[in-house]
UniProtKB/TrEMBL annotation:
Coiled coil: none annotated. This is NAD(P)-binding protein. One of its GO terms (molecular function) is oxidoreductase activity, acting on the CH-OH group of donors, NAD or NADP as acceptor.
């Protein structure tokens, strides 16, 4: 009976991982959320194999407590860890590094991005490693982004979303560092594609930013048809996750594993 721990599970891609994995009653799914009060969608699924655990990945005490709770439920093991929780400052994701305004605001966004997207991921992995070592699958998946690809950034002339992109490039190296150390594990940095996770209608400003972004992507990917749904993204990601072996460890790949540079 495989066991999965998924961070940032209250909504978006994280929720969809829980939804699809828990549909198989043989799976045990631990959904880590910052607040149970915002986890209504998970509760509404009403599946007995879902365990909702309150844990902010920037809170080490909460992570330690979450790992202990998982351990007590599984007898001390965990098969899969999916690091989905991430931070992006959407109010300023259209800005470039030289047009950011006050320097302290740029510093704040960079540090906030690193705190969640890099440091939080490292601590999450460390707290769950003892359980993963006793698991059968030994797979650690960290969701990253095609925006962390230097080649794509240059070819598409995409200078926006800098704090997020920089932090995701850093977490790709984190993934490689763990893979270099733990050769019996599969550590994977996985891009989910460009996914529409919005639960509200976009305003005019959002539409303008999105059009500018997709316009740049289409110059590099002429066949790009627009963002995919969380359902489609997670389905494709799970195919990749289940198909990876030790020879894939340390890699930065996309939800279209057969074309590693096709991020969209």
């Amino acid at each position: 009976m495989p066991s999965y721990a998924i961070t940032g599970a209250a909504r978006g891609i994280g929720f969809e991982f829980v939804n699809q994995l828990s549909a198989d009653s043989r799976n045990t799914v631990f959904a880590l959320v910052r607040s149970k009060a915002t986890a209504n969608k998970l509760t509404e699924l009403g599946r007995r194999n879902i365990h909702i655990i309150e844990a902010d990945i920037t809170d080490n005490d909460a992570l330690e407590s979450a790992a202990k709770e998982v351990s007590s439920s599984t007898g001390g093991s965990l098969d899969f860890l999916i690091n989905n929780a991430a931070f992006v400052e959407s109010k300023r994701d259209g800005l470039t590094l030289d047009f950011y305004g006050p320097e302290d605001l740029l510093t704040k966004d960079l540090l906030d991005s690193f705190k969640v997207n890099v440091v939080g991921v490292i601590h999450t992995i460390n707290y769950f490693l003892p359980l993963l070592k006793k698991g059968t699958a030994k797979k650690v998946v960290t969701l990253t982004s095609g925006l962390a690809d230097i080649e794509v950034t240059m070819n598409a002339h995409f200078a926006a979303c800098a704090p997020y992109s920089i932090s995701k490039a850093a977490v790709n190296m984190v993934n490689a560092k763990y893979a270099a150390q733990f050769e019996e594990f599969v550590f994977l940095a996985l891009s989910p594609g460009l996914v529409n996770t919005s639960t509200k209608d976009p305003n005019e400003s959002d539409m303008e930013k999105f059009s500018a972004m997709t316009g740049k992507f289409r110059e590099h990917y002429p066949n790009f048809e627009g963002p995919i749904t969380p359902e489609a993204s997670v389905r494709m990601q799970l195919e990749v996750i289940n198909g990876t072996t030790l020879k894939d460890t340390g890699k930065f790949i996309s939800h279209k594993r057969n074309k590693e540079k096709e991020w969209l």
